[in-house]
């Protein structure tokens, strides 16, 4: 196969692996799971790591699909003896790939937003006692 097809294939396999590990890490980092540390700061950092893996996965997908689209465009406009009706064109798979890459990057970005604010790190929330309703008469 051509070099651009082999490169796109390798990038898509890398993207699949990064997405798989991103799913596992993100599930571990969710607040509703009992897996991992009980500290909410540590769990949010794990979720951010999953978000970074999703962003990398989306960028690999975007690079693979765009590389293939660039080659299709180059072949289409190149002067050749192949008639114009027999040349490759963009297919629906390219648009699905661009959409999937965009949604994966968006989802990873949302996971990265779950990082706690710097002023709240390590701060514990305690329930305050309710004021008593009894009044003292003096």
TrEMBL record:
Its localization reads: Cell junction, Tight junction; Cell membrane
Keywords of the record, alphabetical order, are: Cell junction, Cell membrane, Membrane, Tight junction, Transmembrane, Transmembrane helix
Per the UniProt record, the lineage of the source organism begins with: Eukaryota, Metazoa, Chordata, Craniata, Vertebrata
Q: Which family does it belong to?
A: Belongs to the claudin family.
Single GO molecular-function term? structural molecule activity
One cellular component (GO) term of this entry: bicellular tight junction
Kindly give the membrane topology term recorded for this protein. Multi-pass membrane protein
Bilayer-spanning residue ranges: 12-33, 45-70, 90-113
> Where does the UniProt entry say this protein principally localizes?
other
Its protein name is: CLD19 protein
Looking up InterPro entries in the UniProt record yields:
Claudin, PMP22/EMP/MP20/Claudin
């Amino acid at each position: 196969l051509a070099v651009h097809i082999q490169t796109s294939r390798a990038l898509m396999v890398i993207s699949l692996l990064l997405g798989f590990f991103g799913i596992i890490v993100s599930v571990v980092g969710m607040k509703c799971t009992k897996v991992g540390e009980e500290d909410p700061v540590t769990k949010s950092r794990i979720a951010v790591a999953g978000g970074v893996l999703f962003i990398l996965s989306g960028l690999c997908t975007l690079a693979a699909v765009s590389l293939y689209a660039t080659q299709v465009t180059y072949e289409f406009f190149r002067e050749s003896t192949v008639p114009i009706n027999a040349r490759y064109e963009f297919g629906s798979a390219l648009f699905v790939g661009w959409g999937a890459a965009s949604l994966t990057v968006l989802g990873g970005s949302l996971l990265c937003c779950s990082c706690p604010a710097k002023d709240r790190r390590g701060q514990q929330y305690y329930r305050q006692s309710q004021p008593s309703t009894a009044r003292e008469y003096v």
